Amino acid sequence: MKSKFLYILPIFILCIFIFILGNIHAEESQSKYNIKEIRVIADEDFPPYIFRDEKGNLKGILVDQWGLWSRKTGIEVKIHAMNWKRAQRLMREGQYDVIDTIFKNEERKKIYYFSNPYADIEVSIFFNKNISGITDIKSLKGLKIGIKKADSNISLLEEEGITEYVEFDTYESIIKAAKNNEINAFIMGKPAGMYYMYKYNMQRDFRYTHPQHIGNFHRAVKKEDIHILNAINEGFSQINKLEYEQIYNKWFGFEYRSPELVLYIKLFISGVLIIGFVLIIWSITLKKAVEEKTLELTNTVDKLQRSENRINAIFKALPDLFFILNRKGIFIDYQVNDPKKLEYGPEKFLGKSVSQVFHKDLAQKLMVPIKESIRSGNTQMVEYTLGQGEDIQYFEARIIKYDRDEALAIIRDITERKLSDMKIYNMSIRDAMTGLYNRNYFEREMEIRNGQNNLNQSVIICDLDGLKFINDTLGHATGDEYLRIATDIIKFCFEKKNTVIARIGGDEFGILMKDISEEDVLKTKYKLKELLEDINRNKVIPISISFGYSISQGNKRDLKEMFKEADTFMYKEKLHHKQSSKSDLVNVLMKMLETRDFITEGHCDRLQILSAKLAKAVGMTDSKIQDILLFSKFHDIGKIGVSDRVLFKPGKLTEEEFEEMKRHTEIGYRIAQSCPDIAHLADWILKHHEWWNGEGYPFCLKRDKIPIECRILSIVDAYDAMTSDRPYRKALSKEKAIDELKRCSRVQFDPYLVEKFLNIL
Question: Where is the GGDEF domain (predicted)?
């Protein structure tokens, strides 16, 4: 019993000694600074340093550190955390003694005294994985950037001229906005960023840059409270490295356990029991030395592990393939985050040279930069392709020196970028409608050929005649069809090696040829005419192409002058076509009317007879009556531009269909203007559906504002329509038709002309 008492007594005395010493020190801290309580304000949104759990309680490294500080000093600490912008404002207003989680900058140094930095915070740019080329602040221009209100990083953006960004109250709200694609990049401390990305399972959707800068967390007090800062610094200096490390390991996910520490504790206890209280001080010193060394080793291992984890994370995040090759081009090792990206399995390339894996030309192309990178140490770039046709893939290889006789090849699939570049380039030189080259390419090609010493060059100009008339009569869809037909014919006749065919205007085509004689040009022209004749057998409006050319004939000539000569030649032929076609337009229009089945059952004949009688009854001249006759025939010519679905619908038209039908007056107006023989009828064709009371279309004209010719035709046309059979009804009797005309007099029809018309029936 006595021996057990002697065994326990030294330990009991030591504990009492440490307790008394701690109380004395706490009382000294309180009395020295005359501080009983400290109010601390901090950001509530910087995990794992400080944040709120699901119940709203404050958690994190700083909560634990301040708790330990309070126990060391005996001073009560009240920690408050809130929105960072508000926290800074309340601190400036003097409502708190200390502000934590603050970065030091020039503006803040004017207000506060700062503690030594206690944490290094890497600040990175986080961005959506689908965005490439983000390396620094400058590369963020044009993106939707998120940043926390009152964050010191705002000044970094503004220094680079970036003033358009979205401010958020918390880091968590930034992450939520990024998840919902409201922003595509944001700047924040890496610990908070990684914490929230893992919390919301976004780590695969976002990447981050190397640190843009490393900020330091400080604690700060207003300049008049320097005594508080001294108390803070002294209190935190009492916390040893092991205690700090245990807090950090708790929140960063590492648990500190050391068999060596347990051994030293056992040795320490044994030593105390053996040598007594006299050696306690020496044992404590030894223990502290061992703890520091163990902590140093632990930190070293920790850093190595973190470094390895970062490298692995980078490899997994990058879409690239990594290969290590020696000076002879033999594959030694590889790294890839998705084995499906490999063109060949590892068994087909590891231990083999590039000449054994790839075809000869590609192997030679790759060996040059491999050797050069190992020799010079400079990064080499090379692009290459695999596959053919639609299966072709484009790759970019960055080759850098890896070791004394080894190189690291970083391979990236750039197929999408290449195809996009080619598509954009083709759009810049091709005409979307015909697929031919456009005018810009044509003119550039003329410049190039002007600089060549080819003495036998030709310029040919083709023009699709009457495209405007086709568009006005048959619609732009038909006009586009005529353009494509003309394109196919021209390509069939002229497409050959060293020939450039381009659409250089709305209806104009340019052709550049080499080594062709005038005889060959004329043969091709006749071939083109024969093809047009075959096609025109089935066309209501025939396709006509005017043709002009200029040939250098062994002389050095400026292609621009030759272009003007060919253009002049073409316009002369076009003028000839125009003159010869004028007389055919009326026949073409009649053919179009017949094709659309408008001239049926003597309708036009009856209209002409009745219109002429009514015109004569009101005293119109013979020349006017002749115009009335022509007007009666062509007043509905615009209906050739109305779809068959609407034109031949047996039932009542819908509102939308009626709007389409109403367009026939405007279409007819444009057609008439294009035809010299009926151009003087254009205004009547446009207005022949106006009503006496102003409720007609297209202008809602009233009474005498409506041309008399239109008023005459509207009465005659209505009467003939009512007394003729239609697909959806039988004809009315003459008496009922007359009653209807009387009913609509002063509404739809001129009452004077109705009276005259009834007199001649």
Answer: 455-588
- Pick from 319, 314, 311, 322: nearest CA to 410: 322
Please state, in angstroms and as integers, the Cα–Cα distance from residue 459 to each residue in 36, 43, 296, 430, 502, following that order.
Answer: 98, 75, 83, 19, 12
- Average pLDDT on 465-484 reads 81
Provide the phi-psi class of 662: left if phi over 0, else alpha when psi is between -120 and 50, else beta: alpha
Q: What's the Cα-to-Cα distance from 85 to each of 89, 113, 178, 213, rounded to whole Å?
A: 6, 19, 21, 21
Cα 133 from Cα 129, distance rounded (Å): 11
Smallest CA-to-CA distance from 184 within 125, 138, 123 is with 125
pLDDT for 439: 93
**Residue 477 predicted with pLDDT over 90:** no
What pTM was computed for the model? 0.45
Q: Any idea which residue has 């509207």 for tokens?
A: 714
Which stretch of DSSP H or E encloses residue 51? strand 51-52
Give the Å distances, CA to CA, from 640 to 267, 628, 658.
109, 21, 15
Higher pLDDT, 256 or 339: 339
- Do 528 and 509 meet the contact criterion of CB atoms below 8 Å apart? no
SS3 breakdown of the chain: % helix, strand, coil, rounded to 5? Answer: 55, 20, 30
The torsion angles phi and psi of 690, rounded to 5 degrees, stand at -75, 150
Tokens of 465: 């005649």
